[in-house]
Amino acid sequence: MKKLPPNPSRRTLFKAIGALTATGAASSLLSSCTRNKSDDPAGLTFTEIPHRLDNNHHLPDEYRADILLRWGDPLHPSEDTFDPVKLDAASQARRFGYNNDFIAFMPLDSEAGLGENARHLASGNSARGLLCVNHEYTQPHLMFSGYNDEYSATRGVSAEHVAIEQAACGHAITEIEKTADGWQPVLDSPYNRRITLSTPMEIVGSAAGDQRLQTKADPTGKKVFGTVGNCAGGKTPWGTVLIAEEGFGGAFQGDPDNIADPVEALNHHSFGISPENRNWGDHDHRFDIEKEAHEPNRFGWMVEYDPYDPESQPRKLTSLGRFEHEGFTLACKPGQQVVAYGGDDDEHQFVYRYVSRQNYLPGQDTHNRTLLVEGTLFAGQFNEDGSGQWLPLVFGQGPLKPENGFHNQADVLIDARRAAALLGATPMDRPEDVETNPVNDCTYVMLTKNKRRTVANAANPRPKNATGHVLEIVPPGVDGQRDHVSDQFRWNTFLLGGNPNAEDPGERGAYGQQSPGNISSHGWFANPDNVAFDPLGNMWIATDGCEDFGFHDGLWVMATEGELRAAPRHFFGCPQGAEVCGPEFTPDGTTLFVAVQHPADSGRSTFDNPLHRWPDNDPNLPPRPSVLAISRRDGKRVGS
Ligand code: FEO
Ligand code: CA
Ligand code: CA
């Protein structure tokens, strides 16, 4: 989702501006994953596309993109072809939701049944699977007729439209198959379902049941309806999917200063809850903090669910902490503790790591489903000399004591931001995806931008960071076999976003050891957001913000090792107004799924008068967030 400047007319989304806390001083690059190999694993021979800004998506000529799923597409045969004028909440809950973001492709083995998740995964089937997609947030001015602009729409939305919006948020599971005509949804699949703001969920982990999670509707503090702000996510080797709750604060309205408990007031302020937010609380009182002060504490978690069991209930995982989760991705080796990495996507917030108490045991799925319930959360400290530590968020240790307002582990997890700051974690330039390269086993942090930074430090080297950067975390060990459980690591700056030839030093990009001449005039990008690795370990970065520099958001791909380390090439571009999310490969690397989010969200574009109507270009249809399936026309690996 786009992060917006603190302009009252645009403070309407599920994102909000957080506290400003950073300090530090500039420093240098240090150790990295292997960077001097002469062999080039990249194999990135596609025809690079140019920077552009128009009303279409763009790919190299040797590729095709199937429009696979669009907002409103039916997920069940009982639903008619999408007609936005006839849409109601019950029908929306049986259709693909709005503003698609994270994508997980979960292979399907036609011989495997319920409970055989490992068998499905092991099949590696790259022609049939479950496409698991987040729906991050809604934009009533682009979804419904009759609204003049985003500000008035989000503050004056009707009860009927709130119900549709809440059914359009969350997540979708759709069986898909590759046919002679390209990828298609399977509408009569028993796996197809939606997760919305009405879906019952269990709250598990170290904060479950705490009094700060209890409401009038749920005195147990262990049951909640729905999920919101679902940005990125992750997958587990035991066949479940993780979905993040990012900008949940914007779903709540009310004045934190009217809450009697000062700890709760501070908490709600830190997530941007304000009387100016969208008006869902007028029609659904749990979203008004002055009526239900604890409801926001039941959001801002990671959620785990089983896509292979359509009857299963999602669970909110409180041991992974509460903040604006971009996502959590696993670095997981058989017989060892599970490590998961994630970011808190707000200015001057932190990078986190979670370590399970027990070990991952392949095949023992009942045991494995406890691994994200019992464990320890850590926040990252990135030192000036290229070393780093993971600092544990454990009640009673260091400053996490009653004198600082922490009375138990639930307080530490609910107020993870405040705990991490007290521990001395390093405030970062909006940490988005954090993901481990399966080939070299190093971990990469996307830092999208932070125009509010006034003082640089080694890990965030630019004040007023407009273009973002990428850090490489190097745990102890050798490439391919690194110790992610260690509390110590090395780190370095993998690249600085921006144009390597920009005159303004604040916007001048630096791509590792590449000289500017090695990056084409279309190879540079700004604002890294999501990241994926293909089977060869190439890094595919999705951007959110390049329109500020005059061209579309899209995908750029590069090697992480060898002579072409950090030398991006431009592969995909979005229609104007959109950012690109997702990227996700089939196991064989021959299909790449991408989510085009908020197309035509630009200027005064509305449902009644949109900037464009991608992807249908039909005068009776609005622009629609959509997932594309990208493949080479000759069927070879994407990128080659
Ligand atoms: Fe929803 Fe952090 O982008
Ligand atoms: Ca984003
Ligand atoms: Ca994102």
What features would you describe in this structure?
The chain is mainly beta. It has one domain (17-59, 68-108, 160-218, 225-247, 300-632). 10% of the residues lie in helices and 28% in strands. The strands form seven sheets. The chain has a nine-stranded antiparallel beta sheet, with no helix packed on it. A six-stranded mixed beta sheet has the order 8-7-12-11-10-9, with no helix packed on it.
What does this entry show, briefly?
By secondary structure, the chain is mostly beta strands. Helix content is 10%, strand content 28%.
Poorly predicted residue ranges:
4-30, 35-39
Tell me the strand order in the biggest sheet: 13-14-16-17-18-25-22-21-20
Number of helices: 10
Termini, distance in Å? Answer: 30 Å
User: What would the average pLDDT be, to the nearest integer?
Assistant: 93
Main β-sheet description: 9 strands, antiparallel
Q: What percentage of residues falls in helices of 4 or more residues? A: under 10%
- Overall geometry: globular
Bound molecules: MU-OXO-diiron, calcium ion
Computed over alpha carbons, the radius of gyration is 23 Å
- Number of domains in the coordinates? 1
Number of strands: 32
Beta-strand share of residues: 25-35%
- The structure class reads mainly beta
Secondary-structure map with pairings?
Elements: E1 63-70, H1 89-92, E2 100-107, H2 117-123, E3 128-135, H3 140-143, H4 150-155, H5 159-168, E4 170-179, E5 182-185, E6 193-195, E7 200-204, E8 223-225, E9 230-235, E10 241-245, H6 262-270, H7 280-283, E11 302-305, E12 315-317, E13 325-331, E14 337-344, E15 347-349, E16 351-359, H8 365-368, E17 375-382, E18 387-392, H9 409-414, H10 416-423, E19 428-429, E20 431-436, E21 443-447, E22 469-474, E23 477-478, E24 481-482, E25 488-496, E26 528-533, E27 539-543, E28 554-558, E29 569-573, E30 579-585, E31 591-597, E32 626-632
Parallel strand pairs: 7-12
Antiparallel strand pairs: 1-32, 2-3, 3-4, 4-5, 4-6, 7-8, 9-10, 10-11, 11-12, 13-14, 14-16, 15-19, 16-17, 17-18, 18-25, 20-21, 21-22, 22-25, 23-24, 26-27, 27-28, 28-29, 30-31, 31-32
